Amino acid sequence: MSSNGEPTSFESQDSIPIIDYSLLTSSNANDRSKAVQDIGRACEDWGCFMLVNHGVPETLIQEMMDFSNQFFNTTAEEKLEFEAHGVLDPIRCSNRINLAHQNKSMLWREYLRLIVHPDFNCPHKPPGFREVAFDYVKRTRAIAMELVKGVSESLGFEASYMNEELNLDAGFQLLAVNHYPSLSDVDISRGLVEHTDHGLLTLLYENGVPGLDVLVNGRWICMGGVPNAFFIINADHLEIFSNGKYKSTFHRAVVRDERKRMIFVNTNGPSLDTIVGPSSRLIDGEKRLPRYRPMKFIEYLECQIKHVTAGKHPFEEVRIHI
Ligand SMILES: O=C(O)CCC(=O)C(=O)O
Ligand SMILES: [Fe+2]
């Protein structure tokens, strides 16, 4: 499934597709239709793309970085209140070492993970964090919803089809802030083992310190360095809903830089009680068979934890071999 080597290139991120968000939201039908086509190609051929001209102010992003930093700098006792227990904890914080299954190396990261939709959750400390995070989530959710409309059209559906089928108005969304302190602060490697995300599309924004690798057509590509752009990757439920047309993208974090790295991760899923399988419009009789078993989204989240802990992928549970 994935080649387990070092990235084959540190340059080829230049060829990752770039989508101009202002064209997707343009009132000019030609511009929009070109953006939709480009999104479709990016999702099918690459499983990821960069998003520019997204309209989220740099000042807001900087404020988010500053507040997140302040949060991570509070004492271990203060953070204990948000110690991780389960997947549905509204606010989770962890300072965690995970074992990379294949090579058994230890990787370290710290994270704050918030459920931000349908209900918004965020710590009240440091003062002002909650308001800024709310603004950031509102804007990134709007972007994600526009992107899903574009994806829906690129699959040949109406723009609103995926939203309606997957009940995205009550969609389950997470905002995670991953923090990889500087090398001099920790004495083991920093990173996150290779995985795919639940949901439809994941939006990532990093603080300019590279460390994200994505697996594209069997080759690891080392991302980073594109200022003021979101990086978008296909997630599991896009693959399931599109019946395998838009594959979920494996990615990992391998921080090679001395500097502190921070990255915001927004996942965008259906509502927890939605049963997600391949769209009925993509299945017909014997020619186009379903490749995934339908599963309630909340059960998928639990299944993902179980499988990842065992070093497996949740698709082992839902994929139909035909
Ligand atoms: O920290 C990173 O670069 C990747 C984060 C990620 O993939 C995740 O949190 O799911
Ligand atoms: Fe991820």
UniProtKB/TrEMBL annotation:
Q: Which SUPFAM superfamilies match?
A: Clavaminate synthase-like (SSF51197)
Among PROSITE patterns, the record links this protein to: FE2OG_OXY
Q: Which domain of life is it from?
A: Eukaryota
The parts of the chain that form a coiled coil are none
* Keywords recorded for this protein, A-Z: Iron, Metal-binding, Oxidoreductase
Q: Which InterPro entries match?
A: DIOX_N, IPNS-like_FE2OG_OXY, IPNS-like_sf, Oxoglu/Fe-dep_dioxygenase_dom, Plant_2OG-oxidoreductases
Question: Which GO molecular function annotation, any one, does this entry have?
Answer: oxidoreductase activity, acting on paired donors, with incorporation or reduction of molecular oxygen
For this chain, the family text in UniProt reads: Belongs to the iron/ascorbate-dependent oxidoreductase family.
Protein name (record) = Fe2OG dioxygenase domain-containing protein
Query: Which species?
Result: Tagetes erecta
